[in-house]
Amino acid sequence: MVEFVVRVPESTPPWRRAFLAGDGPLGDWSAAGVPLDPWGDGTRRARLELPDGFRGRFLVTLGRWRDAENDGRGHEFFPREVRADGPPVIEAHVNGWDQSSVDYHHDFRSRFLPHARTVSVWLPPGYGAERDRRYPVFYLHDGQNLFDAHTAFGGVPWGADEVAEREVRAGRVPPVILVGLANTPDRLREYGPVRCGPRRDHDLSRGYGRLLVEEVKPFIDATYRTLSGPAHTGVGGSSMGGLISLHLCKWYPGVFGKCAAVSPSLWWDREYFLRNVSVSRGWLGGCRVWLDVGEHESPSRVGRAATMRRTRRLSALLARYGNPCRYTEVPGGTHNEASWGARFDRILQFLFATG
What we know:
Shape: elongated
GO molecular function: hydrolase activity
Number of domains: 2
Helix content: 25-40%
Order of helices and strands: EEEEEEEEEEEEHEHHEHEHEHEHH
Pfam families: Esterase
Keywords: Hydrolase
CATH architecture of the largest domain: 3-Layer(aba) Sandwich
Organism: Gemmata obscuriglobus
Structural class: alpha/beta
CATH topology of the largest domain: Rossmann fold
Low-confidence stretches: none
């Protein structure tokens, strides 16, 4: 039996719960892994029976990775080590909270589109310490919905930073940089390519592609330590964001080698994307594709059947053309941020895990 005795900063509100987050029995790197009980002496404590031979690491959090302990100067604090055959009491003194690793680049302007937007960048654990290491990058649309409740639609974000932090620390996914591009009032025009006709004059999707490939990606590659080739670069999104991700991989096979089409809006413009790729062998090169659909994407039975039919058709096309693809029909899955965030761990594992 090992007792963990944690002392938190005096500024910590007494009502905030503290947790251990670590390997295996220490919470499997969930930010709210093992709850710590408050004691009258001001400490937070937990007693755990660790398996024989166990060796692991842990940090202290307030239930979110954004509220993980830091070194007291705002920098990353590296996990403590613990052994089952070590001291029976482990004392941990927390110097400070908030290890947030999201950078915000507001008012990012483009020469191809009329509206500025925010570009948000999540950096994986260890980024600040391993100065010579470079990282793969995952570009995601509707970036305001990824990390922050106060900007997310309906106040519910994907929690992409929390999920990625857990998966990286647990060793299930290698460290990867997440880049979110917020949408604008022109979202449908930017994410929805059309074939021809009067609507074509309002199609901004090609300009959006140029923004991402010619402006955002060079900025990210110049500002952060990235692996810039297509084998290390993914693009993804949900709904219309999933649709434009497929188009971008078709337009730029030399840029994007990984694609996440999450509940993609394949109905758009009378199934333009499906009609186009049905006659375009080799349309995605060797792109690795995650494709999914929730069982309850539409409120009507007819709508659900049509949505399922379209994604199954695309899955069959991907298989025919030899693309590495994981197609998933999500039990109980719905068309919202909570549902998409709930499978983000599997998306990261399929696209970026090397094992």
